[in-house]
Amino acid sequence: MGKPSFIFLRNSDSTNGNRCAGFCPRGYVSVAEAVSSTDVEDNVYGADEVQELLPEMRKEEEKEEHFRRRRLHANPGIGSRKHRVLRRRQVKIEAEAWELATKEYKELLKDMCEHKLAPNLPYMKSLFLGWFEPFTDAIGKEQELIGTGKSRQGYAPYFDLLPADKMSVIAMHQLAALVMTGGEHGCARVVTAACMIGDAIEQEIRIHNILEKTRKKKEKTYDSKNGVEGESPAVMKEQENPRKKVTDLIKKQKLPAVRKIVKGKEDSKPWNADARAKVGSRLIELLLQTAYIQPPCDQLADSPSEPRPAFVHTFRTVSYENKKGAKKYGVIQCDPLVLKGLEKTSFGYFCLMPGAVFNFHANYDKGAHLFLPSYVMRIHGVKQQREAVKRAPRKQLQPVFEALDTLGNTRWRVNKRVLSVVDRIWSNGGCLADLVDHSDVPLPEKPETGKLRGVKKENRERHAQRCDIELKLAVARKMKDEEGFYYPHNIDFRGRAYPMHPYLNHLGSDLCRGILEFAEGRPLGKSGLRWLKIHIANLFAGGVDKLSCEGRIAFTENHLDDIFDSADKPLDGKRWWLHAEDPFQFLAVCINLTEALRSSSPETYISHIPVHQDGSCNGLQHYAALGRDKLGAAAVNLVAGEKPADVYSGIAAR
Predict the structure, then answer these.
(1) How many domains does the chain have?
(2) Residue 517 C-alpha from the chain's centroid
(3) Is 594 inside any structural domain?
(4) What is the largest CA-CA distance in the chain?
(5) Which of 141, 257, 413, 623 has the fewest CB atoms within 10 Å, i.e. is most exposed?
(6) What pTM does this model have?
């Protein structure tokens, strides 16, 4: 059977209502201390330094070959040729999202210009298309003014590293996604939005630079006389005398640059949090200046309504219980028409997807992904934590890398049958199997203040849940035809490991766990078949999960007809599976058990179902083990028992 899975930025008050006065990034962005590190150039002169660096170059080549072999070994059953194909697909997964979106907007604009007609688009895409050109032009003008004026010094070094059209797409979609999922219902905190956009821009710049470098390396010309491929004159000129280039740099005492050439590296220093926030806030300011919407025509009005800003910068005040005073923070508020359109829109652009191939953690900031930043620890912009991890010896971090690699080297795939059931329920309005209803709760006509507040709160929660489900399903639909994919992991400051992909993963909700299964199946065997039956009872819960193992097996065998009906007709039959506490995982196991029992040999049936197992009150388990406490161990299932023990029930019964 398959393996068990075990920011406050200072905002000055606006003097112009909700408009952007006081929104200058220079005025309020101060997120974290700037990280400054200057390379100390060694006082080195002489071409002999090249020879000294050659052993280092060989070490780098050997290290790369070592990791190449490890990657192949970590992807069993995949030959080197298929591994190269999958790595190319991984490059595409990491690099394609914003590239595809930018290309789509350009093609739509071209189509509009050629046919003098707006294409038939969904409401939000037509809005984005209307904002794309003026926003891109504004970014382009800002890039031309880089270096002029002190107000631009904070973001000038970073603002022209990416094409303006791609920056506009990233900023629009990131802000819209944050409005959808940020928990402020139609608003996004300025601080959070600025940092989120800046981080996305930094990641895309890294990908853009690497792809440009790769493209230049692949420039080739075809020698028709000799009938062989050769490198282009530009590439040949660049590579014909690297020793001369290295020697010149040594004479200029540029040894760090020499090392980069010898190692073949172009590592860009990560941005600090202040830089990310300033880039993001300037992009938000430009979007606020260029994004407008046209309200619907009022038949009773004398003249057509004027366009109004799609987003405004305003302030919110939050007060704390048992504390005097209140705290004011800046937010980006979107127009109600925009919010209504966003609620009916699903976004298909993700910059972080599960991996097509498995990659080892090579350093504290490298590995797991090919291009995207992959930090071994989630630091959330805390400089001290980043420096501590950066200074830690490789030998000390190696066990952490190996543990994360073990967790990440499990291949998953989408359970298409369960996904099809989820899609049917969701397309019919949800409200089944713990899926949220597509509709809001109607507001009462003359409500009491408290009742109205409660209904609005529930509708905000429903909106957030709908957005969350849309994101999960979008990822599942995108990955459903993949043979398998991987979830790279990293840790938080406590040492807890989590998948880097935030939406659909095996540690998520019942929906996520039900949709995912192991890509590599195993024959059930006698023990696996027994555990599949126990797993059904565990997922049904309702007290059944507290029975002994034999009692849970008996429960499953007594409900085989219901299990078969759930597997064959999940939405058209008796729908018994909807009574389970974890319905989608339960449905997946019903389908798997049905197929196994109907096969000619259930014990040799290849199963892909993960049997999730959890500890009983892990903290008390550690205390009982450390103290050799037999009574405590029995209460938290550290020792064998006839049926599961519940420490809370045991204490309540005393």
Answers:
(1) 3
(2) 19
(3) no
(4) 94
(5) 141
(6) 0.67
